[in-house]
Amino acid sequence: MTPQKNKTLGEFIIENQSEFRYSSGELSRLINSIRLAAKVVNHEVNKAGLVDILGTAGDTNVQGEDQQKLDVFANNAFIKTLTNREIVCGIASEEEDDFITIKGRSGNNDNKYVVLIDPLDGSSNIDVNVSVGTIFSIYRRITHEGTPVTLEDFLQPGNKQVAAGYIIYGTSTMIVYTTGHGVNGFTLNPAIGTYYLSHPNMQFPVDGNIYSVNEGNYVHFPQGVKDYIKYCQKEEDDRPYTSRYIGSLVSDFHRNMIKGGIYIYPNTAKDPNGKLRLLYECNPMAFIAEQAGGKASNGFERIMDIQPTELHQRTPFFCGSKNMVEKVENFMQLT
Ligand SMILES: O=P(O)(O)OC[C@H]1O[C@](O)(COP(=O)(O)O)[C@@H](O)[C@@H]1O
Ligand SMILES: [Mg+2]
Ligand SMILES: [Mg+2]
């Protein structure tokens, strides 16, 4: 049943409590706390040119990347909101070397969930006023409540996620998320600060004619990816396809989910395991893609079946319309 449009995010969460497999209130409170943090970040993004939030923060993160001021701001906003509302026992972030343990008021770790987050996705676009996003992934902890959270709680395969979503700070601000019961999109009415259900039951078209890849790296791509790009460009059948690459995973993914398309970030000489991080970029986007009828792989296996071994590990990423992902997998497996 397609949810009725123009319901607020809060109403939708209350009406769909039963879908939160583990508990009636905590997961919904967790989604709500992410909504609140997103409003804080959105407010800063929308005035980025007017306040001292552009440019680099002067530090590099564990990935060796220059942290943008907005990366740091968003990271602090989500950590503060999730900590204050005492809903999670731990957070892992692209911008933090190690995971953060969050103790409840009682002084121990009796909350059930851990959150992994890319607080600001598309950092290279911040200073040039192009849309950026936030990506989040939620798991039920493996260790017992009341005991210290451990790395094991974060190194779970994507098929164990209980919820995942993204916020896109674009021409409008949207939250798109799944709890394993389909994908729904909510648009912020900035005048009143409320999110409304604008994209109920989002579905990836099974096919598409848009491919998103940084063709500047073409010479370093695996042969299978080169062959697939040549296939997309060939004058034949419904091709050539359209090449669209925004440089923000969230934005490219969102457009492809609405119009049909594929996002590709393969391994290259510079990034032998690819650039995107498995735990807080690829797994959450893969969960959303599959829940919307799409597909996500590393070219050979399902992203959500990969057993993580490190918090910030990277993976090649092929994600989008099912037939397009299977086509590039065929090219990859032929070489
Ligand atoms: O500039 P490149 O190498 O094409 O990489 C762009 C990709 O890198 C990312 O910006 C990585 O995410 P972060 O901005 O969170 O580091 C993706 O959003 C985007 O799709
Ligand atoms: Mg990112
Ligand atoms: Mg980021």
TrEMBL record:
Reaction catalysis annotation: beta-D-fructose 1,6-bisphosphate + H2O = beta-D-fructose 6-phosphate + phosphate
Keyword Ribonucleoprotein: no
Amino-acid positions noted as binding Mg(2+) 1 in the UniProt annotation, renumbered to this chain: 94, 118, 120
Superkingdom of the organism of origin: Bacteria
Binding site for Mg(2+) 2: 118, 121, 281
Named cofactor requirement(s): Mg(2+)
EC number: 3.1.3.11
Subcellular location field: Cytoplasm
Recorded family membership: Belongs to the FBPase class 1 family.
Protein name as it appears in the record: Fructose-1,6-bisphosphatase class 1
Organism annotation: Halomarinibacterium sedimenti
Name of the gene this protein is made from: fbp
